[in-house]
Amino acid sequence: MEPMSLRPSPRAPSSTTAAQPVDWLGLCRRTVAAQREIFAAVRGVAARTVYEGVGEGGDHALVIDRRCEDAVFAELQTVADAGHSFQVISEERGEVAFGAASEMRLVIDPIDGSLNARRTIPSHSFSFAVAGGPTMADVEFGYVYDFGAGEEFVACRGAGAVLDGEPLSARQGDGLEVVGIEAAKPELTLPVVEAFQGAVYRLRGIGSIAITVAYVAAGRLDGMVSLRPCRSVDAAAAQLIAREAGGRVAFGDLDLGQAGLGIDARYPIAAAATDGGLRTLLDAQAAGRSE
Known about the structure:
By secondary structure, the chain is an alpha+beta fold. Helices cover 33% and strands 27% of the residues. The protein has an eight-stranded mixed β-sheet with strand order 4-3-5-6-7-8-9-10, with helices on both faces. The chain has a five-stranded mixed β-sheet with strand order 12-11-13-17-15, with helices on both faces. A two-stranded antiparallel sheet has the order 1-2.
C-alpha cells in the first residue's frame, strides 16, 4: 500500500477487466468539493429544512442529504465505468450493487450530522470507508471530512492515520478528562452521566459520530460513547482512523468481525485512547441501556 500522504488505495476488486487501482482519496476529495458547492448554494435553516421521504437507513432524508449522496454516486459511477465491481452501503439509497458480485463494500454517509447541517451548525462530516468484506474488521480505507473545521482524516489499514497529512496518535494519558457523547437525547443521557461521576471530568456533544470518533484519534477527546445504537455508515471510516491512531474501539459486546456493515446493522459504539478508558465507557454505556 502506498504511503498515506500520496494515494491510499486498498486492493482493487476482482474483475475480468484489467482495471487500474482506484484513487479513493482523490474520489473523496472531489466529492467534498462538490458537497461544498451544495452547502454554499443551500444556505439558511429554512432552505435546508426540506425533506424528501425516509432514507433506507431509517432517518428522514433532507433534500441536501439526497444531493450530497448524488455527488458521491456520480463519482462511484466513474469507478464502475472503469471496470470495477463493488457494493455500496449508503444511508439514503441503502445497498446498491455496481457490476458483478464482489466482496468489496463502500460504506458511505454523505452527511453525518444531518441535524447540524440543517441547523447550519458547522460540525457535520462526509464519511467514506472501503472494506474487503462484510464487517468492521474488513475496513481497509477510512476517510472523514469535517466541514466545520475543514479538516481531513484518513487511514489505511496497517499504514496509520493522518490529519491533513500529519500523523495521528490517540492521547495516552491517564483518566478521561474530556469525553464526547453522541445521540445526546435527555432521556438517554441521565443514567450515563450518573455512571460517569467520579470518572469523567467534562463531556462534549459534537453531533457527528464520525467526527467524534476521529477526535479520539487526534487526541482531542480521551473517549467517546454513543447513547443509542449507531449504524455502519456512521462509524465504518472513523473506527479505522481511531484504531490506526492507536485508539481502542468497541461495538458493544461484538467483536470487530461480528459488527456487520449492512444497512440494517445497529450497535452501540465506544472509543477511547486506553483500555482502561474504554472499559469505563462501556460500563457507563451498559448502565444507560439497562435503564
